[in-house]
User: Fold this.
Amino acid sequence: MNLPFYIVDVFAENKYAGNQLAVFLGADSLSDQQLQTIAREINFAESTFITKLQPENKTAAIRIFTPDHEMQFAGHPIIGTSWVLMHKIFENKPEKISLSVPIGEIPVHQSGDLVWLQAAQPEFLNTFLTEDFLSFSNLSRADFEDKFPIQEVTTGSAFVIVPIKSKKALEHLILDKDKMKEWLHAHCKTSHRALYFYCLVEKKLSSRMFCIEANQLIEDAATGSASTCLQAFLLKYYSPEIQMINHQGDFINRASQIYFDGKLAENQFDIKIGGKTQYLAKGEWEV
Assistant:
């Protein structure tokens, strides 16, 4: 059995930047173990598997896997898979499609070079003390932006949002893997445990995402799901209207640009993230 697949870079202004993604078609007959094994073999941050395709309705169902586990929702896989469907699979390059993921239907549209997704309503979970982070990072109390809380937020996948005052502190951030893992397991409300550090200086937004997979400390180049959580956080605490670019991956040589367009009105969050996708390759995967 052979699966057609595509490789793209997502949230990337140019090739060989942003976050890598493999998109596999015709995966409906594969077992969970086969999907996980393929994702582990290709070893990108995430791979997507299209399990149902309805070209007449411009809809598809997908499953998202990291090398370690399945994700309920993830931004760059949805953006990248949508671009592949719009430009390589569906006829006439539709500008609007819908993807089904475990948390539900995600509306996606293209405007110019950008593909946008609409995120679900956020849930704001526990807040934390800066002292918690002193035990497993090189940050000092002065490095934290005390105008905003440290808080776990989810729009499908949860992230602890950590405001940092300066890009320098963000750049030189060091984390102790074992102590961080212990803290995440003790404090996070969901099974998806990750930290999203950001700084916002003169309306320039920079971020870094860290998680632990296969007992390794992982930094992601561009994290759409974390960006939807961060946008919700900024709408709640910073401004009820947001239009800016989130810069991630700068410190690991995978510069990424995640576009924010959000509003908060009457306690309803309108959260949209967008990005460019760069096409790299296609092939067949022998199962």
Remarks:
- The radius of gyration is 18 Å.
- The chain has a mean pLDDT of 96.
- The chain has two domains: 2-119+275-286, 123-272.
- Residues 22 and 249 are 19 Å apart (CA to CA).
